[in-house]
Amino acid sequence: MGVTLQWRSEHTKPERRFGTTVDFGGGAARGTGYMSYSERVGPGVVVVHDAFGLHDDVIAFCDELNLEGFTVLAPDLFDGRMARDEDEAAALAGGLDDARAARLIREAAGHLTANWHPRVGVVGLGWGAALGASAAAGSRLDALVAWGTEVEADCPLLCLDAASASSEDIADFLAYNLS
Questions:
Q1: Between the CA of residue 93 and those of 27, 155, 157, 176, what are the distances in Å?
Q2: 19, exposed or middle or buried, with CB in 10 Å at 0-12, 13-18, 19+?
Q3: Measured between alpha carbons, how far is 109 from 137 in angstroms, rounded to an integer?
Q4: CA-CA distance, 137 to 101, in Å (whole number)?
Q5: Virtual CA dihedral for 94, 99, 103, 109, nearest 10 degrees?
Q6: Where are the domains of the chain?
């Protein structure tokens, strides 16, 4: 008498994904941000928003990276404020304490490595790329992506033109350097 085993397809249960506001850091480097994660722990990515703030497009980008297998945290460098036009964006960016912003980015990276995965990269969007590079200086990052500007870094670096780059280019670079 034989026994027949029927295996369930490994894709019968969809992976659950989450997007939420989180607190991280402490003291002067305490911050909040948007975190996109799933049941599966993937390498960490800190997304540094552009001069318009942590808006819906940045959140959607974080979710795209999460779909590619990354655990993503975007610190809110403007504490909930968002710009509606270029003038407001310039005012927000000009009023930012760059040293505090760099601490928040490092704390976000530390939050990811302490709680999720030992490897972490930073993606800076436009104006945020220079802040990401500044935060990377002197800290241990495994990769840096500067989307829309050129910077220098002591870790693997990808500088992309904002007009021709895609989130797939970024995901491929991060997957190679963070796995």
A1: 22, 25, 24, 32
A2: middle
A3: 13
A4: 13
A5: 60
A6: 17-178
Any idea which architecture 17-178 has in CATH? Answer: 3-Layer(aba) Sandwich (3.40)
Q: Is residue 167 classed as helix, strand or coil in its secondary structure? A: helix
pLDDT digits (tens, 9 = 90+) for 77-108: 999 999 999 999 999 999 999 999 999 999 99
Burial of 42 (0-12, 13-18, 19+ CB in 10 A): buried
Whether the CB-CB separation of 49 and 77 falls below 8 Å is answered with yes
The closest of 49, 26, 42 to 124, measured between CA atoms, is 49
Tell me the per-residue pLDDT of 134-168, one tens digit each, with 9 for 90 and over.
Answer: 888 877 889 999 998 889 888 999 999 877 778 88
Q: Which of 125, 109, 120 is nearest to 142 (CA)?
A: 120
Cα gap 84→120, rounded to integer Å: 31
What residue type is 141 in one-letter code?
L
CA angle 86, 83, 167 (to 5 degrees): 85
Q: Which residues pair with 145 in a beta bridge?
A: 123, 158
DSSP-derived 3-state class of residue 41: coil
The reported pTM is 0.89
| Euclidean distance between CA atoms 39 and 69, whole angstroms | 10
